[in-house]
Each structure stands twice: as C-alpha cells, then as structure tokens.
Amino acid sequence: MANNTPDLNDRSLQLLKTLVERYISDGQPVGSRLLSKDSTLNLSPATIRNVMADLEDLGLVHSPHTSAGRIPTSSGYRLFVDSLLTVKPLDNKELSRLHQNLSTKDNDNQMIGVASRLLAEITQMAGIVTIPKRELTCLRHIEFLPLSHQRVLVIFVTNEQEVHNKVIYCEKNLSASELQQAGAYLNSIYCGQSLDAVRCAVLKDLQEDQVRMNQAMLDAIKMAQLAFESNDNKDDYVLTGETNLMGFSELSSRNHLKQIFDAFTQKQDIIHLLDQSMKADGVQIFIGEESGYQVFEQCSLVTSSYSVNNEVVGVLGVIGPTRMAYEKIIPFVDVTAKLLGAALNPKTTTPS
Amino acid sequence: MANNTPDLNDRSLQLLKTLVERYISDGQPVGSRLLSKDSTLNLSPATIRNVMADLEDLGLVHSPHTSAGRIPTSSGYRLFVDSLLTVKPLDNKELSRLHQNLSTKDNDNQMIGVASRLLAEITQMAGIVTIPKRELTCLRHIEFLPLSHQRVLVIFVTNEQEVHNKVIYCEKNLSASELQQAGAYLNSIYCGQSLDAVRCAVLKDLQEDQVRMNQAMLDAIKMAQLAFESNDNKDDYVLTGETNLMGFSELSSRNHLKQIFDAFTQKQDIIHLLDQSMKADGVQIFIGEESGYQVFEQCSLVTSSYSVNNEVVGVLGVIGPTRMAYEKIIPFVDVTAKLLGAALNPKTTTPS
DNA sequence: AATTAGCACTCCATTAGGCAGAGTGCTAGT
DNA sequence: ACTAGCACTCTGCCTAATGGAGTGCTAATT
C-alpha cells in the first residue's frame, strides 16, 4: 500500500504515463506500436509488449480482448494521478472567467449556483457544490407568528441574510402579542451569538434556577429550544450539467445512466461520498470503484473542500467518466474551491 | 377541423381504435392479420388492408416501412383520445393510495412534492406539478432587518405560513429600530389584505396628499413598494421521476434524451406549455408535436389544472412517450388534480 | 358494390462466411 | 536486454443468403 511503485522501473512508469495520457485523449485502447511511436524512449513494439504484460500482471492496465490495445484500470489511473501526472496550469481565458464570476456577490446561494455552473460548463461534465455548513452560524433575529392549533411559525435570520423558517408545536396557546414579546426577549438575550452557543445557553437557562424568570420568559426560552433543537441539517448540494454525462459512451448502457441519475436525486450516497472529502484538505479524487458505490464504477469524482476563514464549510467538485483529463480538472477544481471560499461572505465578522 | 371524423365510417373507427389499443399495449407496428383476429368485427386481412390504406391517406396511421404493420400518428392518437377512448376507472389500490397520501397536511409545499411523486410512481413516467399561484395571497406579516450599505432584508409571511424574503436597497440609512417601527406600522395598516390590494393601496397612499403622513410613515410605505413591486413571479414546478423516461426505447437516441432533460432544467418551455393548461378546465392532452416544441415530438403530456376554492391555481400532469396508456392516465391525472386541489389549504379563509 | 383470396413484391432481421486490420504472445536471433 | 519475426486471435465490416412479416394489387366471390 505504502509502496505504490512495487518493482516498477522508471521506464515502465514512463510508458504507463504515456499510455494513460494517450487513452485519455483518444478513448481507444492503445497498442504497442502506437505507444512505441508516442513515447520518447525509443523502444520497439515488442519490448513494449513485454512491459505491458508486466503492467497487466500488476493490475495497472487491462485488455478488453486479446487483440486490442491496453486501457488503464482504476489502479492504473490511481498510480497515474498520484505519481505520474503533470498538471497543466489553467487556461488564461478560463481563469479570468472564474475570477470574473466568482467575485463577491451579496447572495451566497447565488454564488453556490454560479460555482456549480462554472464547474459543469468548463469541464463539460457534472458540477456539484455542497451548501456550506456553517458551524459558526450567528443568530441575528428571531420572530414568532401564531398559526392555528398551538402551532407557531418561527422565522429566524442568521448571518448576513439567511432566512430560515419552521413550524413548531407549543404546549399552550399564546397570543400574537405574547409571541411578539417572546421574540423580543429572545432577541435581546441571544442575538449575535452562534447557534451552537444559543443552544447551549438555552439548555443552561432552562436547567438553572427558573425562579428569577417569569412565566413569559420561560415560555420564550422553551420555544427557542424547539426552534433550534434539530440541527436543521439540510445536507444538500447544487448539481448542474448532469445532462453532460449523457454524452459519454462509457456510461452508455441505458440502465446504467438511470442508476446514476437516480443516485443524484436520491442524494444520500452522494452526500456521503462528499462528506469524506470534507475531512481532507485540498483536492481529493475517487476513481471508479474507489468511491465504494457500484453506481460510480465507471465514474471519477474530483473534489475539493472549500473554506471560509480557514474553516472547511463545504465541498465542490466534478463528476465524470473515469477517463477524464485529470491534469486539467485537478487544478481547475482546486482553484474554483479557493475562489469560492474567498468569495463567500465571512460570516463570523459581524462588527458590532 | 370541427368535423374530426371526415368520411370515416364506424368500422374504420373501430379498427383504428383496436389498432391504437394494440399498439399501446405491444409497442409493435400492428399488421392486418393481427388486427383481423383482434377486432370483434370479422373481416379478412385483405379488407383490413384496404381500410388501413384509407387511414394512412387520412394521416391517421403510418408505416415505418413497406412491410411493417401500421402505427398511429399524432392525429391518430388525437382522434383516439377525443372520440374512441374508453376510459378505465381507477384501480382501487391506486385510488386509496391517492386518498391516503393526499389528505391535508400542514405544509403545502410538501403536498406538491407528494403529488408529483405519486404521479411519477403510479404512471412510471415523469410527474410534474406547478407551484400554486395564488392571486389571493394574503399578507400576514412584514418585517425589515438592516444589512450593510443601505440594504435591507425584508421578510414577509403570506397566507398560512409561506415565508418570503428579499433584499431591497433603500435611499437612506435607517436604523434597526426605525425599520422595526416601519414594519409595525405597515403591519397595522396592510395586514390581512391580499398582496394585490396592498400593492394598490401603497400606490394610492403614495400619490395622495402626503401631508397627513410623517416622514417615518412615508419611508415605510416606500419600502413596502420596493418589497412588493416585483410580482415575485417565481414560476416553478416540482418534477419527479424524470429518470423513468430513460426506460422508453422510443425516446432512445442519446441526444434526444439529453434535449428532453435539458428542457427540464431550462424550465421555461415547460412552464409555457403548462401555462396553456392553466386556462382550460379539466384534463388536457398534448400529443407529440402538438406541444409545439420539437423536443417533445415523441412525447405526450397529460395535464390538468387544479383549483382551490374554485379558482385555478396550478397545473399538474405527467410526461411520457406518445405511446402511453391514455385510458388509465387520463382519469388518473384528473383525480389527482381534484384531490390535490381539495387537500391544499384554502388560503382565502383567514378567520379573524 | 363490397369483400375476400391469392400472388408477387418489398423490406427487415438474422445468420453465416470471408477478409483486412490491429494487436498480442512467444520464440529465436542479435 | 532488446528486437525481429511469425503464428494466432479477435474485431469490424462487408456481402450474400434466407425466412418471415406484411403490403398492394388484381381477380374472383358474394
């Protein structure tokens, strides 16, 4: 595992590299003759065939049938991206396009959408961006409105301008004005704190001697508890350009495509996959079956977490066939993640 | 146009009917011999061939090639659904499933989703439901929060529990408490009225002598104008089961499927198509090119508007290949529309 | 006059055979 | 250690042949 170049000499690696590059650009199994011409080291096809046989034994390449050339396996791609890849710097046109579109906008959600669209359009594959999780959600305002039957609509604003709403069920019927007062009270004591902090404070306040509080205060805090209890863990992502995937012959079989799209609407598997990249810093790559999901056997995922104020808040990336131009995609995803992170509003700074 | 059975006798119609039914169930071009056995009228294949030739002249059926059977054209389907179709009553199991799932829930948006999913699952095609437009949106509550740089976050609640938010740009910088007062003032004078009414009232109030009002009132009303000016016309729909369409061989060509899916994400064409059914009452059907969009040449759309309090507020339906089981789909869409309409909260009744 | 039987014809789908091209593995020679 | 050569294999493509399904037309029947 640790030693990923078992007994491969430089020559074999060089050949594997050109093979993968060639296959990525052509999409055809590459044979010994082509490889002999393509590579800089002057070797006869016969020699190359020997090397290929070795590579095949190691599970790095494989032949669709006896008299076809070789194509890289997942392990082959893996070795390629880990040790052999020479990344290409971003195209200037694309870079400026990124900069132009990912400059700060007022609306974060808008930015997420833009980023996803850029990923999809520039790579011509599917682009995906998770909605940023913000541990440091700062409560700005809370408000209650009465509905029928002890149901109460709670609206709260976090950070700059994110509006959340939710229906809670109360023990007793409270009038509109009572609710309003409750809101005012909560605003006065919790505003400006992070949601986590508020949650803690609520618990503490409820447990501590409730003597000092009057009934109205107690009611207010109980409602706050209801309002914030669930983490509102709306794990979600913005996916664009899925239809680009329909163009790839490798994901051809009708049924296969359906499974991929179902996974997209299902969301949970994808989320789980993306969550893994949350932990890591920088670009991460899942090649073929490495993802652990059968659906993505023929796909690769290039992702990167993105951070605001040095804190990882989300993941973005592209999904495409295993045969993708890693040397361009990888730096591209990397840059996009950095730019998006920079463009998002740094929510912690709420100057008093 | 008006006379849609030009010189067709009953026999021809009968034959057309069985032909369409047969084609719908088998998906194979149906030939004269099969038809002769299938139909109740005892005719020899030869006779049937003559009739078929007539039907072909009239453009009701067509032959993929010389020695294949006939398949209905769009006009053929049209005649079929208009005059020949014998609708099948809903399956009991499905009916009870509809009733069970479409009983009133608190959240309208949730209902829309459920309806869409039911449409897709039961028909095994794509289900679509537009977000209900409500002319009679009743304003329940409005609130302003300051952002930076003269930007103001406005939050307003309509009907039972629909929360909208929007950022507006103000002429001058107002403090949080000024904004709060403005909100309170607006609530006191406009609450309970429909959005349309509020819009009118705002204009009127602005034009009439502004002498009676103090500056704060004026500011408030100006902000109200900004808040409500755009109709917030977020025409939108909930689409489910798109992937079901991948199973149909008639929508096979890779490129074709991509176009359809692109239309789904594009949304505008679909919206436009659905808008047409808004006007009509009851079930409406677009067969093949009747939709007017090339993308849907091979598709049919069965839609129905749905109403709350006798007022049409939205459209729902299914999208599938032209070769679909109309006799089941039509009553199904019909019932679903009625049930959804009944289940949605009647927003006008806001008992004081 | 309407229907039907019969026949020649057309077109598709499948099968089989043949052939060229590409690529391999192996062996023997450099 | 490398390479040239050769036999072999598999694909893709073309062609031809065959059977089946269905038609259109004509002539016969009712």
Residues in helix, % of chain A: 40-55%
Give, in spatial order, the strands making up the sheet with the most strands of chain A: 7-3-10-9-8
Low-confidence sequence ranges of chain A: 1-6, 348-352
Query: How do the helices and strands follow one another from N- to C-terminus of chain A?
Result: HHHEEHHHEEEEHHHEHHEEEH
- Termini separation of chain A comes to 53 Å
**Number of helical segments with 4 or more residues of chain A:** 12
Tell me the overall shape of chain A.
Answer: elongated
Structural class label of chain A: alpha+beta
What is the overall pLDDT average of chain A?
87
Beta-strand content bin of chain A: 15-25%
Sheet with most strands of chain A: 5 strands, antiparallel
Please give the oligomerization state of what you see. Answer: homodimer
- The count of DSSP E runs of length 2 or more, i.e. the number of strands of chain A, is 10
Radius of gyration of chain A using CA atoms only: 27 Å
* Greatest interface (CB-CB under 8 A), with counts per chain: A-B, 28 and 28 residues
Q: What key phrases describe this protein's structure?
A:
disordered C terminus; five-stranded antiparallel sheet; three-stranded antiparallel sheet; DNA-binding; 352 residues; elongated; alpha+beta; disordered N terminus; homodimer
